[in-house]
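Handout, section B. The chain below has 471 residues.
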Amino acid sequence: MRTLLFALLVGITGLARSQPAQPNIIFILADDLGYGELGCYGSKLIATPHLDRMAAEGMRFTQFYSGSTVCAPARSVLMTGRHTGHTTVRGNAGGRGGAQMLRADDVTVARVLQQAGYATSLVGKWGLGVVDDDGEPRKQGFDEYFGFLSQRHAHNHFPPFLWRNGQKEVLPNDFVSAGRGEGVGYATKRIAYAGDLFAVEAIEFVERNRHHPFFLYLALASPHANNERSRMLGEGNEVPDFGRYATKPWNDSQKNHASMITRFDRDIGDLFAHLALLGLDERTLVMFSSDNGPHREGGPDYDPSYFTAGGPLRGIKRDLTDGGIRVPFIARWPGRIRSGAVSSHVGYFGDIMTTLAELVGAKPPPDLDSISLVPTLLGRDGQREHEYLYWEFYEKGVSQAVVYRGRWKGIRKSKTTAPIELYDLQNDIGEKANVAARNPEEVAKIAEIMRTAHTPNQHWKIPDLAATRKN
């Protein structure tokens, strides 16, 4: 009898294990990390052992794109599943009221997961709304948040305060104002490092919600430079110490930059260790990416080419060549995503919405620019492909870019009436040879996409769009 009961118990337990519950989800976003700055993407100088292990135990994508080449629109695309011709926030707006704020009718990834029963938290940098406006995280699907609301505030890695659920949490750092907004500046007595606080907060959220499906959006502020400190003191790569790079024959700016990356890699390792400790490892999908390409904002002594930050790609942050928008993307889910997998599938930030909705059994909002990555992640047949990916960028005029069928890359610089440059990404990953003259049919297709992919937005306008050429 006892043998029969034991057999029944084992059978029931096995059945439960074969029908996994909704996965916990953690999306980690680095800030201004280049495609080539992780060991698993070719870095020889910067140590990232935990992210390299994440890639070895999961899937690494080789042609995955951010939503934009700068911060705020990239995050808007990630949150809404719509590209920069359709999403609400399409550029870094500075002080222009309303232009860098999600609206009340936007439906974010966090909202979809919250409505599916998930506990949701933002830890780190938001950049899509401030306290008491429609873009504040609690009005966009997050149960709680801790960190920076304003992206300029997020430049300061030793800030005088951080936001927690609408309230300021004062920190022991002093403050030298740069005159560009509340909390925007730098510290001379650097005590509390925001990245360290985020690491602790992330683990505490996981601990509190270990018995409940959760979504953690861990939006790091590293390795973005403190632009204001760069301007005022000449060095903006802020970190508590040089770490393992103290004895390297590099300048201080290079040591700081490398240490910023290795430090958050350490924190990600601690998060993985805590998932394992709580028995959540096999129930948790973790994704990692960066919001755009590498910066050159650390001061006169910092040059991203020293670290080959973009890998084989041309350009950096604020460029629409792949160095500005192609980013590392790693996904790990033990037992569900095959270890050591490498995917050449062409995806981008907007796909996260439909992917996560499918995984949790939720219905995504309509009219998205989003394709589920679930078949690729789980090794199934039936992966859909994008006909094209589209970007528009609002600095020094309006530029546009299209990746067409994963191979052809079209770029218009500064004006939508400018000629289209065409690159063959399959044979020219560094975008060195403009082949527009030899491929007029591909240029015409891309020109039509550029003409039609933009929808009206009161804050982000393209005055000469009607005059764009179709050939």
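Note. The radius of gyration is 22 Å. Compare this with the example in section A.
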